[in-house]
Structure formats: structure tokens, C-alpha cells
Amino acid sequence: MMIRKKLIAAMMLMLSFCGISAAPLYFIAWFPDGSTSVFPFADHPLVRVEGENFKVESAGVAIEYTAATVHKFTISENLPTGKVEKVEEQGSVRHAGDEVLFSGLRAGGLIGVYGINGVLEASYRAFDDGTCAVPIGNLPTGMYIIKTETITYKFIKR
Fold first, then answer.
1. What does each C-alpha distance from 140 to 92, 115, 145, 147 come to in angstroms?
2. Which of 28, 105, 115, 123 is deepest in the core (most CB within 10 A)?
């Protein structure tokens, strides 16, 4: 419920800025580690709330966030300042039956399985060849996030 209130406030703020400023505006999602996702208003970002998740679509890209992963939302005429390290995505993920298969990971890299509430349910390490098969058959019904150093994979166990 709190995410909806924040999102509605951000959208109202966006609408109030639309006719006032000649400077470019940005919709910014801030994360607990200080990193950001920036969506220029010129790209006409569309924000949709789906339960406790929200999806931002802009310039042909759709990104889905959970309430637990975003610290705050802002609208600004200025881009975020400061150094934010960007991790290039590497590796691939594939859902196969009762397993989620990862490849192209760093040897020994940590893989965490989190419940939607952010609680770590299980953890694994990538093999020397950069692969890992994460079993999900024993998980109870619910929404989960599997995170590696470079990949975030979200799924619903039915």
C-alpha cells in the first residue's frame, strides 16, 4: 500500500511540473546502494502499479521493480550526481522445470534466492565453469527473486 501512495504522489508531482518548466525533467528511481534509474520525460515514461510491483516503460524498455528494491522516487530537472558504478550484465538464465539454470557467471559467484519480503531463502555458488542449477521445486507457492552478481531473475512459483 505504501508503494502506491509514493507512486501516486510522484505521478501528481510529475503532472504539476509538466506545464511549468522549460528545462528537461527526469523521473528517477533511487536504490538503497545509491544507484539510480533515470527516465527522461521526453521519452514519455509510463508507470504501472501491479500489486506490490511497478513497471516503468520508456523508449521501448520496460523495467519492473519491487517495493523492497526501491528507496525513493524523485522528479528533477537535474540528473543525479556522484559516482555510480555500473555492473555490465553477463551470463544468461533459463527456467527449466523445477530448476533455474544460470551460465556465464563468475566461478564461485554467489547466487541468492529471496522471497518477495526480501528474506534469503537459499544460497548457492556458481561452479568453476560459471554454471549453476538452482532448484525451486521445494519452494512454497509465492513470488521469488534470484540474484547473482549481474542478473536479477524474478518468478512466481505456483
1. 25, 10, 13, 18
2. 105
Q: How far is CA 132 from CA 16, 48, 85, 109, 125, in A?
A: 48, 33, 26, 10, 7
CATH code, 2-76? 2.30.30
- Cα distances from 31 to residues 36, 123, 157, in angstroms, run 6, 22, 26
Global pTM? 0.45
Question: Which three three-digit cell numbers place residue 157?
Answer: 512459483
Alpha helices in 27-118 (DSSP H): none
pLDDT 10s digits, 25-71: 777 777 766 677 777 878 888 887 777 777 778 776 777 777 667 77
Class (C level, CATH) for 92-157? mainly beta
**Residues with Cβ within 8 Å of residue 74, at least 6 apart in sequence:** 10, 27, 28, 30
Q: What's 67's DSSP letter?
A: G
Question: Which long-range contacts link 90-95 to residues 24+ away (Cβ below 8 Å)?
Answer: 90/150, 91/130, 91/148, 91/150, 91/151, 92/151, 93/146, 93/151, 93/153, 95/155
Q: Where are the domains of the chain?
A: 2-76, 92-157
